[in-house]
Amino acid sequence: MSQKSIIDRLAILADAAKYDASCASSGTAKKNSLGGKGIGSTEGMGICHAYAPDGRCISLLKLLLTNHCIFDCHYCINRKSSNVERARFTPQEIVDLTLSFYRRNYIEGLFLSSGIIKSSNHTMEQLVETARILREEHDFRGYIHLKTIPEADPELVHQAGLYADRVSINVELPTDSGLVKLAPDKNAQQIEGAMGGMKMAIRQAKDEKKRFRHAPRFAPAGQSTQMIVGADAATDADIVGKASRLYDNFRLRRVYYSAFSPIPDASAVLPLKRPPLIREHRLYQSDWLMRFYGYQPSEVMQATEADGNLPLDIDPKLAWALKFRERFPVDVNRASREDLLRVPGLGVKAVNQIVASRRHRTLRLDDVARLTVSITKVRPFICALDWRPVMLTDRADLRALLAPKREQLELFSA
């Protein structure tokens, strides 16, 4: 059989990497090649592949080392029993591709994952070697995100942190029972053990950096993980609880959610349909509530419906507010920052501006309207100098009034 060309393999392995959502590059240390030293940077603009929370556009070459795999996870299109076209890169080929794309200003970094070929240790060695060549032989200073393999030797996983800005270890599924059923080759304790080891290594590196100026950098952008949504029977309440424990136990920078996507020749244990993409979006919103708005996991769970899932027609923050109407309305001129963050329609930036502005003047409804996209959503939950919602907050049809209107798209609209 003839060897596939680089372009053919790139098409296969870039397409195979699209199912991995955890490729944002926020949190890395700023590096550049000013002064003629090194090559690459972690900043700049290019082809957009991911956005950092501060709004920076990060372009990443995102691909797999190989889509061959000795594991047989039911939900994975690259499982060993899957009838897909296979391809493989060598570490040097990925290095050449990365540098070639970077010099053309197509990318600013590399996101590299892989199927398991031969063994977990062999695959991890190949991933680490790719990053090592970029860093040590080419002095590449762009962003590198390595997807590590929890089944590999801990020393190999540790080496990944010495070369990568961010590392990630996927927990795959929200529940242990789901993992046993759908990914029999994986072990929940082994996955969390690897995450715990990475957490300790990151903490130790930070301590050493404080004491020793030239201490080696180690995964400065931290670690992340990813969960598949909708492949098993886990509810949104289960997923929120799992994400919260992961944040607390392993100090993760991000938990990513990936809606299950049906695959060719799928196992009979998998759902026939993919979950609505809006469910994935609601989980990201709930994640934001816990990370930036001060909500406890139990409070986010209170926003779920009777089936344990978040409502799809309204966001989790509004769902929580409608369930706890006795907490509203709040006075924008007197309420604490924590209470203002609970108001549907008010983001962190708007709340900070309200708190700063009311030191100098008493705020009216129009003042609040200038700080938010939709004052209609905010009005039932606040009081201002010239506004009180009276009975609006307690209306039985308030949810219907605030839910986004569904619109039928026109096939031939201009």
UniProtKB/TrEMBL annotation:
Keywords: Iron, Iron-sulfur, Metal-binding, S-adenosyl-L-methionine. It comes from Alteriqipengyuania halimionae. Residues 65-190 form the Radical SAM core domain. The keyword Methyltransferase does not apply. It comes from the Bacteria. Signal peptide: none annotated. InterPro entries: Aldolase_TIM, DNA_rSAM_put, Endo/Exo/Phosphatase_dom_1, rSAM, rSAM_sf, RuvA_2-like. Gene3D superfamilies: Aldolase class I, Photosystem II 12 kDa extrinsic protein. This is Putative DNA modification/repair radical SAM protein. Pfam families: Radical_SAM. GO terms for molecular function: catalytic activity; iron-sulfur cluster binding; metal ion binding. Its cofactor is [4Fe-4S] cluster.
